[in-house]
UniProtKB/TrEMBL annotation:
<comment type="function">
    <text>Component of the eukaryotic translation initiation factor 3 (eIF-3) complex, which is involved in protein synthesis of a specialized repertoire of mRNAs and, together with other initiation factors, stimulates binding of mRNA and methionyl-tRNAi to the 40S ribosome. The eIF-3 complex specifically targets and initiates translation of a subset of mRNAs involved in cell proliferation.</text>
</comment>
<feature type="repeat" description="WD">
    <location>
        <begin position="6"/>
        <end position="37"/>
    </location>
</feature>
<feature type="repeat" description="WD">
    <location>
        <begin position="48"/>
        <end position="89"/>
    </location>
</feature>
<comment type="similarity">
    <text>Belongs to the WD repeat STRAP family.</text>
</comment>
<dbReference type="GO" id="GO:0003743">
    <property type="term" value="F:translation initiation factor activity"/>
</dbReference>
<feature type="repeat" description="WD">
    <location>
        <begin position="282"/>
        <end position="312"/>
    </location>
</feature>
<keyword id="KW-0963">Cytoplasm</keyword>
<dbReference type="InterPro" id="IPR015943">
    <property type="entry name" value="WD40/YVTN_repeat-like_dom_sf"/>
</dbReference>
<keyword id="KW-0396">Initiation factor</keyword>
<dbReference type="InterPro" id="IPR027525">
    <property type="entry name" value="eIF3i"/>
</dbReference>
<dbReference type="InterPro" id="IPR019775">
    <property type="entry name" value="WD40_repeat_CS"/>
</dbReference>
<keyword id="KW-0648">Protein biosynthesis</keyword>
<dbReference type="GO" id="GO:0016282">
    <property type="term" value="C:eukaryotic 43S preinitiation complex"/>
</dbReference>
<dbReference type="InterPro" id="IPR001680">
    <property type="entry name" value="WD40_rpt"/>
</dbReference>
<dbReference type="GO" id="GO:0003723">
    <property type="term" value="F:RNA binding"/>
</dbReference>
<keyword id="KW-0853">WD repeat</keyword>
<protein>
    <recommendedName>
        <fullName>Eukaryotic translation initiation factor 3 subunit I</fullName>
    </recommendedName>
</protein>
Length: 329
């Protein structure tokens, strides 16, 4: 099927996310204006105006009431989705690199970069009542990261932990009652660009600059599977209905102009979750893929690229009919 091309950003896409029902798709980019789209027909519903620079991250709560965004203008902002209004702005000392609502959406976590003499920090805030008062409230919890900075993050099971991915390739699990480190592993040897949970939250996948994506157990951080490519992986997502993984990436933007698009450097690549084997590729972007997301019904996926486009690709029937041949003996 022909993909929907969503053209609303002037610069590279940094992150895309569906809401829980999948009727809305949110996109953040380096042009300061996050967008929201109807995922069915690609029509743009609106933009969220207020950031003064690149928007690195966004997340939507499970009831699709509020949106949280973090940007290079040293602010984390909360938005009312019905009106598009900026309800609260939390000023930070440096760029906000990651932000996520907890599953219950009673809390949100965001992290700031190590920059301008300020350390990388993790903040947990109370989001049960979202209004102006959040700007002046102290966070529930905050702590400094003394090692390499946080580049990606997900919430752990039952909102009791968060797991942070770091520039040096470490994964660290934090206890939110104490703000202390519970567990730390280093399975990647380069920056972790993206982390996404499985539908039931029991597993998560990481995408790294070291040209691999890896599957981990959310509670124990045990490494379960590894998917290898020949170029940096910027994003990876898990299908909600099939044992499939999609990876996206490409070389750094500086090297892009020297290569032909025909070489398949910017394809979305599909791997079998269990067997770790690649079984399909989808072309389309004219630059590295920076963010990927499966639709919650598993029948389509979206990708956001360095070229500023968001593409929504529905799967043909052959995708669902495809079975992996293996010996059952």
């Amino acid at each position: 099927m022909k993909p929907l091309m969503l053209q609303g950003h002037e610069r590279a896409i940094t992150q895309i996310k569906y809401n829980r029902e999948g009727d809305l798709l949110f996109s953040a980019a380096k042009d300061a204006k996050p967008n929201v789209w109807w995922s069915l027909n690609g029509e743009r519903l609106g933009t969220f105006n207020g950031h003064g620079g690149v928007v690195w991250c966004l997340d939507v709560d499970w009831q699709t009431i509020n949106l949280i965004t973090g940007g290079g203008d040293s602010s984390c902002r909360l938005w009312d989705l019905e009106t598009g209004k900026n309800i609260a702005t939390i000023k930070t000392n440096s760029s906000v690199r990651t932000c996520n609502f907890s599953y219950s959406a009673y809390q949100a976590a965001y992290t700031t970069d190590k920059a301008m003499g300020h350390p990388c920090e993790v903040f947990i805030i109370d989001t049960r009542t979202v209004d102006d008062s959040i700007s002046s409230q102290s966070p529930i919890l905050k702590w400094e990261i003394t090692d390499s900075k946080v580049t990606s993050m997900v919430w752990g099971t039952l909102d009791e932990t968060i797991i942070t991915g770091h520039e040096a390739g470490d994964l660290i699990q934090w206890d939110l009652r104490t703000g202390k480190k519970v567990h730390s592993i280093k399975e990647h040897n380069h920056q972790i660009n993206d982390m996404q949970l499985s539908r039931d939250g029991t597993m998560f996948i990481t995408a790294s600059k070291d040209q691999t994506a890896k599957l981990f157990d959310t509670s124990s951080l045990e490494l379960l599977k590894e998917y290898k490519t020949e170029r940096p992986v910027n994003s990876a997502a898990l299908s909600p209905i099939l044992d499939h993984v999609v990876l996206g990436g490409g070389q750094d933007a500086m090297e892009v102009t020297t290569t032909s698009t025909r070489q398949g450097k910017f394809d979305a690549r599909f791997f079998h979750l269990v067997f770790e084997e690649e079984f399909g590729r989808v072309k389309g972007h004219f630059g590295p893929i920076n963010s990927l997301a499966f639709h919650p019904d598993g029948k389509s996926y979206a990708s956001g690229g360095e070229d500023g486009y968001v593409r929504v690709q529905s799967f043909d029937q052959s995708y669902f009919d495809y079975t992996f041949d293996y010996n059952r003996d």
